[in-house]
Write a structure and sequence with these properties.
The structure holds two protein chains of two kinds. Helix content of chain A is 80%, strand content 1%. In chain A, a hairpin with a 2-residue loop joins strand 1 and strand 2. By secondary structure, chain B is mainly alpha-helical. Chain B is built from 22 helices and two strands. Chain B has a two-stranded antiparallel ribbon. The chains are: A mainly alpha, B mainly alpha.
Chain lengths: 494, 518
């Protein structure tokens, strides 16, 4: 089989990181103690290079406006958007992993390879409307993440988290598969566009409804929406900080993007039923995520519940359901990428390892690295939706569209939820700047070997800079990225 | 090169120069504290000089606008947002008050902060930027952005440099303000969606087409956000906590400018956009203002902490401001404009004075003092002048403002006008009672003999620095009391036009338009 140039350019964004992922274990084979430093540096360099190459290629593709496809793989604007999104998230995670793994004393070759494979799966997941390919992408992104969660094997918590993630993830994947089977059984086709057309003409078959619901459950699990959220806090707590950040941002992001495509392509026949169900899920997610976050004493668990609540805002955008709302959701994802990676990055940059991530441990630490702490606080304020930062505009656009569509009560619930969120987001700045370190924490900090985390610190500062810049010029990204991605995706499927 | 740019972008300059300067100063290490403080003071003074020079030089056009900047900023989900700043009669003096109070506050609290005072000074500059931005913003989303941007610096000022209950007070301040403004955001987005614009004028036209019940609901959401900021009874409970726990600088800025933004929001946005609903609710607003005046005064009377007493007197004074606005008369509203400035000057000065006393005695309990006049005669003289202006003695600023407000309420033509005016007069009486009683217990009489008392710790009278801070405020107090026209002439035309708009559907239009012509 030969590939045409267009087909090749469609799969190249997948090939570049995949190639990097294959090279990495080879580099890790070298066991010579004298060269280990260089090998590690080379590994991180390869990973960054692969991600940078993919990013560069995708941005070029975006700039030319080409939307090649290869079989059922459509590298359209929406997929390109997702690809760029994933590359940036993965690159930030790699930067933070360098410092985090050194702090943990656990630098292994496979970690970065798994991360890259997961990124490949994510792009595949967003670039198709074929059920088989979707499932393939879902598994390719999930399986490496299960292993990554447990990558620091010496920690029992990490092992437990990995196992939990794997088991619940397997159930979600089987739901997804079962849903695909039912849809295929009813319609006799695997392409979501064709499924949508057939169902639209034939009326709602109950089996097809069950299938669509199961499919949705698979997505909602990845988005960590209530009631499929229970794995989130445990997994985020157990995983290495950068991996938690990466999962919260990229997994959620690509699941949302794929869901947008699926909704646009195959499932409009659900109509008001879908809206009602999504509205209930969104409200539950908002309420539960925000209330549970109030009660956490561990920063990572707090951020995990906060990521659940952000799934709620994003779902509100999907409930509004207009192209403008989808664009708003994409903008929200961009903002969320930087603010959440910044927040998780702080933990790494401050040299907190393992489960030493309670509010107790960061008390008064802000004054030691004010630049870093201020940057992280900006990210947190943005998460809380305080203007004029990026997160505010994400919420603003989603609420705006909700209100324009007449869902005023849902918008009110949304703003009340974000009011609650201010309280727990403020707890970190309060601990960093307003509280004095306890003697015990001071002693522990003194005993801890001091690590410099320059790359993680740089990533936090960069995230904060982007959060502020997005706040000052929200229109640019919205128009040039989010709107175009949605427009072209909808042309393609309709 | 730079001068022509500043001439045309004076508003951008005064809004963003403090932000840039403050952000720069935040990055200096703690051991450079003195240098940072000096640079902050010089920066704030420079911005005052440039801003005041430019704003007072240019004469207003026919519509009252002095300078403006306007261009398209961004558009998301179909509604354009404009970068539209303007200084006009309605906000000119509030802008100048802000520019003026910040350097005084910095100088007045030079040695008051125990640690990291450089960072606090930088935060005050950031706060100045947010306040000025909110004052001059003409686009509602822009206003909202600045409105919220003020929260964070204030939160940290209270939370880091405050008293023993600072975290509680800071969080309460934050959550109270946000709960109002988030609901307001929903109403704002709804209204803007109907109007397809964030410009108040366009929104007002769109609102007129909405059903009356909808208008009232939207006005309620706007009013809630502004009333929390003022703060209007019964939403005032965050204020005494915030004032008592905040460092002196925070209290001065809070009382001097932040609270005004609530009443300014009513004047600038809520009433012009929802004239019908505003008229409908004016009785309720007036009633709540009256309760705030009387209740604030009564609670102030029983306070044992001087700062808390001043904080409750703020509730009472801001009640007057809201009463004048609710009267919907030119006289009353002009009184409110003046009273906003009065309160900024007098209460700001009171907080500075209480801070100076606290710096020496490390206590603010009234019972810990007594006979302070014998130890600090100059301080006592200043305190007395400011107290009398706060009470509203003729020839001081307080008298003019309160007189105009009471006058306006009395002639408002509303059924409740005369009764409320009479009730509010009682508030003036009460303010004399609690202020003078406090002065008597703190300053007069023999010195407190207890060696542990606050009086015993008073060793030095005011320093030159402190006199330099207080003198301009005292000059202003008399200037505003003797020749208030300086501060009233700018806003008269604009307030009048706003009122004609608001009163258009009202039955008693005749009496008012006559008044406006005068």
């Amino acid at each position: 089989m030969t590939l045409s140039a267009a087909e090749f350019s469609a799969i190249l964004p997948l090939l570049i990181p995949a190639l990097g992922a294959c090279l990495l274990p080879l580099a890790a084979l070298d066991k010579d103690q004298s060269t280990v430093k260089w090998i590690r540096a080379a590994m991180f360099f390869i990973a960054l290079f692969a991600l940078g190459g993919g990013f560069f290629y995708l941005t070029t593709l975006w700039a030319t406006g080409a939307q090649p496809s290869c079989g059922a793989l459509h590298m359209d604007r929406l997929a390109q958007f997702a690809g760029i999104f994933v590359m940036i998230a993965a690159a930030l995670a790699v930067l933070q992993l360098w410092d985090h793994l050194h702090q943990e004393g656990w630098v292994k070759g496979e970690t970065l390879a798994l991360l890259l494979f997961s990124a490949v799966g994510m792009i595949l997941f967003t670039a198709t409307s074929n059920l088989i390919l979707l499932f393939l992408g879902l598994e390719l992104l999930s399986v490496p993440l299960y292993a990554l969660t447990a990558s620091v094997r010496m920690r029992a918590k990490a092992m437990e988290a990995g196992m939990k993630y794997f088991l619940t993830g397997a159930v979600a994947a089987s739901c997804f598969l079962m849903g695909s089977v039912l849809l295929y059984g009813v319609t006799g086709t695997l392409d979501l566009g064709a499924i949508g057309l057939k169902l639209a003409s034939g009326g709602a078959d109950p089996l097809a409804l069950v299938g669509a619901a199961l499919l949705l459950a698979g997505f909602l699990f990845k988005i960590s929406a209530v009631p499929f959220h229970q794995w989130t806090p445990d997994v985020y707590e157990g995983a290495p900080h950068p991996i938690s950040g990466f999962m919260s941002v990229a997994t959620k992001g690509v699941a949302v993007i794929a869901l947008v495509r699926v909704l646009a392509a195959g499932l409009p026949f659900l109509g008001s039923r879908f809206q009602g169900a999504m509205a209930v899920v969104a409200i539950l997610t908002l309420v539960l995520g925000n209330l549970a976050a109030l009660a956490q004493s561990n920063i990572k668990r707090m951020l995990a519940y906060s990521s659940i609540s952000h799934a709620g805002y994003i779902l509100l955008g999907l409930v509004a359901g207009t192209p403008a709302a989808y664009s708003a959701v994409l903008f929200y994802l961009v903002a969320y990428l930087f603010m959440n990676m910044g927040a998780f990055g702080l933990l790494t940059a401050m040299g907190l390892v393992g489960d030493q991530t309670t509010f107790e441990q960061v008390r008064g630490q802000g004054w030691k690295r004010p630049d870093l702490a201020i940057a992280a606080c900006l990210c947190l304020f943005s998460l809380a939706g305080i203007p004029p930062l990026a997160g505010f505009y994400g919420k603003y656009m989603i609420f705006k569209e909700l209100i324009l569509q007449g869902h005023i009560s849902m918008a009110v619930v949304g703003v009340l939820a974000s009011l609650v969120s201010v309280y727990y987001y403020l707890r970190l700045p309060v601990a960093l700047f307003l509280e004095k370190a306890t003697e015990k924490a001071e002693r522990e900090a003194a005993e801890r070997p001091s690590f410099k985390a320059p790359l993680a610190a740089a990533s936090v500062l960069a995230c904060a800079a982007v959060v502020v810049a997005l706040g000052l010029f929200p229109g640019t990204v919205y128009r040039s990225l989010a709107v175009k991605a949605v427009q072209d995706a909808f042309h393609l499927v309709r | 090169m730079i001068t022509p740019w500043i001439n045309t972008h004076i508003l951008t300059f005064i809004v963003f120069a403090p932000l840039a300067w403050g952000a720069l100063l935040l990055f200096f290490p703690e051991r450079q504290g003195h240098l940072v403080k000096l640079m902050a003071l010089l920066g704030a003074t420079g911005i005052l000089a440039v801003g005041a020079g430019q704003l007072l030089r240019v004469s207003p056009d026919a519509l009252g606008t002095i300078v403006f900047e306007r261009f398209y900023w961004f558009s998301a989900v179909g509604i354009p947002v404009e970068y539209h700043l303007a200084a006009d009669g309605l906000n000119l003096w509030l802008v100048l008050l802000t520019l003026f109070l910040v350097p005084l506050t910095l100088l007045g609290t030079w040695n008051s902060l125990s640690s990291r005072s450089g960072n606090a000074f930088a935060l005050i500059l950031l706060l100045e930027s947010g306040m000025l931005g909110a004052l001059v913003a003409q686009d509602l989303l822009l206003f909202y952005l600045f409105w919220e941007a003020m929260l964070l610096p204030m939160y940290f000022l209270i939370g880091v440099w405050g008293g023993s209950e600072r975290r509680y007070a800071a969080t309460k301040f934050m959550l109270f303000t946000l709960s109002g403004s988030l609901l307001w955001l929903v109403a704002l987005l709804y209204t803007a969606g109907k109007a397809a614009s964030f410009a108040p004028g366009v929104m007002a036209q769109a609102v007129a087409a909405l059903p009356v019940s909808g208008q009232r609901l939207l006005f309620g959401a706007f009013a809630l956000a502004f009333a929390i900021k003022v703060p209007l009874f019964p939403l005032h409970t965050w204020l005494p906590d915030a004032h008592t726990e905040a460092p002196t600088a925070g209290s001065v800025i809070l009382a001097g400018v932040l609270l005004k933004l609530g009443s300014y929001g009513f004047l600038r946005f809520a009433l012009p956009i929802f004239p019908g609903a505003g008229l409908h609710f004016s009785g309720i607003l007036a009633g709540l203002s009256l309760v705030a005046i009387i209740y604030g005064a009564l609670v102030a009377m029983v306070q044992t902490d001087i700062k808390k007493l001043v904080a409750y007197s703020s509730v009472s004074h801001m009640g007057f401001v809201m009463l004048g606005i609710a009267s919907m008369t030119l006289v009353g509203t002009q009184g409110s404009m003046l009273q906003m400035l009065n309160h900024g000057v007098s209460t700001g000065a009171l907080f500075l004075l209480v801070g100076m006393l606290y710096d020496r005695a490390h206590t603010r309990r009234i019972a810990d003092f007594g006979g302070v006049a014998t130890k600090m005669p100059v301080f006592t003289a200043f305190f007395l002048v400011v107290t009398l202006s706060s009470i509203g003695l003729p020839l001081t600023n307080g008298f003019v403002g309160e007189f105009l407000i009471l006058n306006g309420t009395f002639i408002s033509g509303f059924g409740w006008g005369r009764a409320v005016a009479c009730g509010a007069t009682l508030g003036v009486l009460l303010s004399a009672a609690y202020m003078l009683w406090m002065v008597k217990r703190v300053f007069w009489g023999p010195a407190n003999p207890d060696p542990e008392s606050g009086t015993a710790h008073l060793h030095a009278d005011l320093s030159l620095r402190e006199v330099v801070v207080l003198l301009p405020l005292v000059v202003l107090i008399f200037w505003m009391g003797i020749h208030p026209q300086t501060f009233l002439v700018q806003s008269e035309g604009q307030v009048g036009r706003a009122l004609v708009q608001a009163q258009a559907p009202a039955p008693h239009i005749g009496s008012l338009s006559a008044e406006v012509k005068r």
